[in-house]
Amino acid sequence: MHAASVRRLVAQALRQDFFYLVVPQKIEEVTFWSRLIRPFMPFTEDGWLGIGAFLCSMATVLWILHVVENGWEGCNMSVVGWIRFQFAIWHDFLLGGGNVEVEKGPVYKFLHLSFAFFILVALASYTASLASMLVIQRDAAGAVKDIYEAIDQDYRICAPSALVETFESVFGKVFVPHADYMAGPRNFYAGNCEGMVLSQDLIDQLYAGQIKDKDCAEVASGSITDAEGRCHSDHRGSTRVDCHLVKAGDLIWSIPLSFPVRTKIAHPVSWAFIKSQTSGAYARNIEANQHSFPSSKCVAEDRTEEEGLNLGDLSGMIFISLFIAIFGLLIHAGTLAFRRLKPDAPSDDPNALWAVPPPDPKAGDPEAPAVPEKLLEGGLEVVVEARSAFAGANVETDETATKGEQKDHDVQSVSEDPNDGKVQTL
Question: In this model, does residue 62 exceed pLDDT 80?
Answer without folding.
Answer: yes
